[in-house]
Automatic annotation (TrEMBL):
Stated name of the protein: histidine kinase
Domain Histidine kinase: 41-257
Superkingdom of the source species: Bacteria
Subcellular location: Cell membrane
TM stretches of this protein: none
Residues of the full protein shown: 330 to 589 of 589
Amino acid sequence: ALEIGHDLGHALKNAQTFERERRLLEEVRELASYKSRLIATISHELRTPLTAVLGHLELMESARLPVLVAGSMQAVQRGAQRMRRMVEDLLVLSQVADPSRVLDPYPVDLAQVVEDVLGLLDVTLTRQELTVVFDAPDEPVRVPGDVVGLDRMCTNLIGNAAKYTPKGGTITITLVPSGEMVELSITDTGVGISPEDQERLFEEFFRSSDPEVLDIPGTGLGLAIVHRIVEQHHGTIDVVSAPGEGSTFTVSLPAKARPV
Ligand code: ADP
């Protein structure tokens, strides 16, 4: 009887701990959701006046201004544009980071998504004189997911490859079904990433302190958004890179929907 009592006491304690942990987890989730909604509201509210500022600045571009004023105007415009990029990225991050947002998976052809993104980035890629090689099977490569999120994921990764690769470089994209997963790799011949920076790449607002990188406009939110989208799709993302030698980002996504 003593032993049974002991076991019961143990089980009760376990149940209490379990319940406490469940409640804690719920609270963390609620807080994360609140944070996302707060960021969404703020970025939304900032967008309207910012659009007005940028609109007026554009109007003033055609005015004949003294050189000194024109210089200041350009600086103001660059600042406002930077702010807009930040607001847009924050809005997307708040949408994908909200844990209360559940994914309703739908079969998405990743090869088509990559083709679409390449089409949209065409002007940038040509301007940068970049060669793009896209290697994918002839048939569609479908993954269960959210087409808007997957499009954003590819835009950010391919956009980064273009941004951080000097003129004349090459971007190689491969898409291969690999067992139960689908693997998408984006390799560039760009500036590369140091091992210390690789540790922090997916943090919100992280940008390399490399002067070569700081000259290129960015918000440091692109990869945080990618990371969250990959997580939402129950996938993984890895990076292999060396400074001066380029980078490879590999996303691995389940080819089949997980049973609920
Ligand atoms: P952003 O490009 O707006 O700065 P990201 O979150 O997309 O923000 O990327 C974070 C940082 O990771 C970049 O500032 C850059 O230092 C580094 N990075 C990302 N992609 C690449 C790449 N393909 N090659 C070299 N560095 C990269």
